[in-house]
């Protein structure tokens, strides 16, 4: 039996770093990954505390703390600094200017405008292996195996994520992971539409325009050697996505 606290949490804005989710009159750019890295601990009490959090509203984004200003946190993790490079290019700038872009535009930062960061799957794992689905995860969610959790997320969470695109009407959703393009399609793309496919710098770009005008672009992962890692490649993808928006 699915735990009701987990169900409520997993069908809300869990798995989001947040920022400005936007509105039809002021659309934002969303950046969507697969799941948080790092990983939750295999600790039942800790997981239940997480599932008790109120995620009924979009996450606010990074806040300043005594260690660093919030915008710098975008540059503290490889996934985020790669995202800053792509967003800088989409904004018409050079990827080499990603640090100044992060400081000025402040994507995913509380009270700033224009950018929101989320994930398809709300739980965090160090990697995608199913062996990390241990006892505490089974007890607190009601799923004995990670595949059951994945199947349930696709069935229950993806339609809710699609409703967000209809409510908030983002300008662009950048989705990272070509091998997950079918998942991104289920979560964000109108039923009767298919992705356009292009190749840039020997890497695939998929994109489609929803009926409400939202552009959904799927790009390769940005943090492995076979993905979208070279600055020249990121610049080409950013420039092309900017053309599609225009």
* Principal-axes shape call: globular
Distance between the termini: 48 Å
Strand count, sense and barrel status of the largest sheet are: 7 strands, mixed
CATH structural class: Alpha Beta
C-alpha Rg, in Å?
A: 18 Å
Report on the structure:
With 246 residues, the protein is α/β, with parallel strands linked by helices. It has one domain: Uracil-DNA Glycosylase, subunit E. It is 38% helix and 14% strand. It is built from nine helices and seven strands, in the order H-E-E-H-H-H-H-E-H-H-E-H-E-E-E-H. A seven-stranded mixed β-sheet has the order 1-3-2-4-7-6-5, sandwiched between helices. Helix 4 packs across helix 5 and helix 4 crosses helix 9. The longest helix is centred in the middle third of the chain and has 23 residues. The radius of gyration is 18 Å and the shape is globular. The termini are far apart. The mean pLDDT is 94.
Would you spell out the secondary-structure blueprint of this structure?
Blueprint (H helix, E strand, L loop, with lengths): L3 H7 L7 E2 L9 E5 L10 H8 L18 H4 L4 H13 L7 H8 L9 E5 L15 H7 L4 H23 L3 E5 L4 H8 L7 E5 L2 E7 L5 E5 L11 H15 L1
Salient structural properties:
246 residues, alpha/beta, Uracil-DNA Glycosylase, subunit E
Q: Gist?
A:
With 246 residues, the chain is an alpha/beta fold. The chain has helices at residues 4-10, 44-51, 70-73, 78-90, 98-105, 135-141, 146-168, 181-188, 231-245, and strands spanning 18-19, 29-33, 115-119, 172-176, 196-200, 203-209, 215-219.
């Amino acid at each position: 039996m699915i735990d009701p606290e987990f169900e409520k949490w997993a069908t809300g804005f869990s798995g989001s770093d947040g920022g400005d989710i936007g509105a039809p009159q002021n659309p934002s750019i969303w950046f969507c990954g697969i799941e948080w890295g790092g990983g939750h601990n295999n600790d039942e009490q800790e997981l239940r505390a997480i599932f008790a959090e109120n995620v009924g509203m979009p996450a606010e984004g990074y806040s300043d703390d005594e260690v660093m200003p919030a915008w710098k946190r975008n540059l503290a993790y490889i996934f985020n600094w790669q995202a800053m490079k792509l967003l800088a290019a989409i904004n018409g700038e050079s990827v080499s200017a990603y640090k100044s872009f992060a400081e000025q535009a402040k994507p995913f930062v509380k009270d700033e405008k224009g950018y929101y960061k989320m994930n398809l799957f709300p739980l965090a794992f160090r990697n995608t292996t199913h062996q990390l689905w241990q006892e505490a995860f089974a007890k607190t969610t009601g799923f004995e195996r990670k595949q059951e959790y994945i199947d349930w997320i696709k069935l229950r969470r993806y339609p809710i994520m699609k409703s967000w695109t209809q409510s908030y009407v983002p300008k662009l959703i950048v989705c990272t992971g070509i091998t997950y393009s079918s998942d991104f399609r289920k979560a964000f793309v109108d039923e009767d539409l298919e992705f356009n496919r292009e190749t840039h710098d020997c890497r695939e770009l998929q994109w489609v325009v929803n009926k409400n005008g939202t552009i959904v672009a799927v790009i390769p992962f940005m943090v492995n050697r076979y993905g979208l890692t070279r600055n020249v490649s990121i610049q080409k993808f950013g420039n092309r996505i900017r053309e599609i928006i225009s």
